[in-house]
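Progress report, Aim 2. The chain analyzed during this reporting quarter is listed below.
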Amino acid sequence: MPAQLPPEAPALVLVTSGEPADVATELATVIRTDNPQIEVRLIGLKGDPGNLSAELESLAEVRPEEMMAAVVVTVSTGPDPELDRLVAEAVEGCTATAVVAEPLGPHPLLAEALHLRLADAGLARADRVRLLSVSSPVDAVIVVSTGGAEAMAAVETTAVLLASRLTLPVMAACLDGQPSVAQAAERLRGIGAERIALAPCVIGNEADELIAAAAESIGAGRAEPIGAHTLLAELAARAYGSILATA
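Predicted structure tokens for the chain:
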């Protein structure tokens, strides 16, 4: 990411499916703090692509006509069919030039953020650089998310990346579909895992009740959601930078 950008450089527009929650606002703040050269906007679609279209039009008004007005980054850990559809409609439905970045995950930095959230909860060794605990407090981890079968491919890739960091068995499970947390726990216990932890591959707190219920149902510990982690902010900034580099 360049240390400086021209005033007419495109804005980074973070998009959430609903009203921007505190975690999305905090994420935008982290990105601004770490990358003061980037103009960061935050938009909640609330089911209406027109909200994003209007924001893109306003950004285009203060930039040269031939310039890209914005790079759109969805605040999600992987493909989200409904959110992605609304974003595509918004971009196609306005005259502004905008590019939609690839989803933030799966990505090794996302797996690292999950690892650190587990470590924060005392459910995993910290990374080797931090040189903290030595023994693992759990035998296996289940990476959980929402979105049904369509979201599971990305979650499964994230689970593989996390397994390589933890050197433990890691499986993916869906909080609102298949494969379920109970099914994943049964498979892990079938290979000898007794102490299991849940790693929520979600950003906000919208799935807290589902996560708590799933953890209780299998007697597992659980980490906090990713939240406005600095690594997530870095992913968003990288997504922005990669679009600029290829524009």
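Confidence is low (pLDDT under 50) at residues 128-133. DSSP finds eight helices and eight strands in the chain. These observations will guide the mutagenesis work planned for the next reporting period.
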